[in-house]
Amino acid sequence: MPVEKFEGPLRSRANLFKTHPSLTIILSLLVLILAIFTSASNSVIPRLGLLFGHLTPRHTPTTTTTRHVTTAATMTTIYAAELEVAQLAVQRAAQLTKRVFREKGTKGAVAKDDASPVTVGDFGAQALIIAALRARFPHDAIVAEEEAAPLRTDAALRERIWRLVRETRLDDVAAEGLLGGAVADVEDMLALIDRGKSEGGRRGRVWTIDPIDGTKGFLRGGQYAVALALLEDGDVKVGVLGCPNLPVDDAAPLTADIGANQTDEEGRGVIFSAVIGQGAWSRPLRTGALAEGKRISMKPITEMSSASFCESVEAGHSNQSEAARIAQKLGITKPSVRMDSQAKYGSIARGAGDIYLRLPTSKTYQEKIWDHAAGDLIVREAGGQVTDTKGQRLDFGVGRTLATNSGVVAAPAAVHGQVLEAVQEVLGLK
Ligand code: AMP
Ligand code: MG
Hints:
Keywords: Hydrolase, Magnesium, Membrane, Metal-binding, Transmembrane, Transmembrane helix. The chain has 430 residues and is α+β, with helices and mostly antiparallel strands.
């Protein structure tokens, strides 16, 4: 009897397969699918590989100390490795930009073809960020603002940047190891800078880098940001902004003077970050390992009259007189807060400010994807909505520019429609 009892269920299961042969086929198929899933590599089945890639450590860290950290991080959350590397890369690059920011004089500024300035800080920060991406995500494409051409013909400029790149490292050995360590030599530095020439687009993984967003602010002693974002198939998945001159304190009120005569002294320096579907955070900008992060969210606007809106310092980047008329239409009584760079996105994401308007000054200018990708995600993950002046989401999948968009309207989701309506009335888009 005990044997019968034991064998009973087995026998009836065997009978089941005999009476339903299709079950055997279905089960075999299931086993086959599972086997493919677990063994699929990125090259065999790219889409499935991509999905699984985020759950498993694909990029071998360079040291044993870092392996443990990376494995734990990547196994738990989608994009955890990308987020960690991006924040550390921004933190390291910001050490270089801070050093240049403190220099008196021209900061090695040269004019680019479009007459916009670029400093030794821009080149150096871009080289350091791309070095980290090459070490950790070697197959990803990169869209970065600068190129090495001016350095190839100017030995003094090149040497100055090389010295900065060579001397900048995180003061935490494990964190520096996670970024792949030092750049080999001057030639390697130039090659790294030139890895940022991807055309972007709708397919695959693309990092966008603005090594110093708001270079004019950086030169004036205002706000600037080190900006890095990961796009996947044209959508922003990870966004990081290092803002060395913003207060660490998320609750610090946004005063009208935040955009001028800034320092990066005690109490300043913050990293904003976001991962798609996982929220937005801020943390103090450090010199080694990452500091503890805090969740941030936009402030609900109860009264438009007490809302504050941010815009560019540069009148050539955003139409300030139209912005004033929009503010008036909305009943906003405070003067605008003017500051350079994506620090504006970070400031509204943590509720220090409320609305960010960027109104086109010319019909032909196309916004650059590196000027908006990180900020767009950080604001949306903090409870905001970001569109252009036509009400369309920013489309990062059309190339190096936001060719199909016009301007930016960012506000808490609950009032975005109201703000957009005022924008469209004033711009004559309705
Ligand atoms: P912001 O500091 O917010 O004024 O933005 C700085 C960015 O504005 C720079 O990184 C430039 O890429 C970008 N920019 C340059 N010219 C224009 C323009 N005419 N309209 C809008 N943005 C511009
Ligand atoms: Mg920029």
